[in-house]
Structure formats: structure tokens, C-alpha cells
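Bug #77: duplicate submission created two jobs. Keeping one. Sequence:
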Amino acid sequence: MSWKKMLLDGDSGGGAVLQGTVAVDPPSIAKASTTNIDVGVAGITTGHKIFAQCQSDLETGLACVATYCPANGTLRLRISNWSSSAIDGAQRAWAYQAYP
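Kept job's structure:
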């Protein structure tokens, strides 16, 4: 299979790319700390390389520092609060792509 066909088909040889959106409602995150937020995603496995992006602006001070799959069927977003006070982020849509 050519590299061009793999990119167009979303298949790097290990299976199709998974993509979609999930609703994420982070809990209150204490100042200068980090929390993991787990969301169920059918078909995702620990072997996937995952990219995720919030579809609107996060509150000032919050940043997503990692996305990965700790167990099959679970998408984990690791969100840090770099501000000097707790932040309870609003629910937002996040888009993800998972590559085998």
C-alpha cells in the first residue's frame, strides 16, 4: 500500500484511525495541580497514539498536558491548572484522533 493511500484512507497499516468528539467536564482542579479525566471511547486501545483538542477555549490557567489510553476503551486527558487558585472548568466538546 502506498503512503499516499494510507494517509487518504486513514490507515497506517495497523488499522483505521478512530476519530470523534467526546464531552469532557473537568472537576474543580486545585491551584498548581494536575488531574486525570477519563472518558469512554469504544474501540480505542492502549496501542493507539492519541491526539485531542478542546473545541473551544479552556479557562485561563488550564492546559491539557497529555492524552493517552490507560486501558482499552478509555481516553485519558491530563489537565493541569497553572494558576494560583482552583478552577472548575466548564463542560466542553473535545475532538480526538487515535492512530494504531
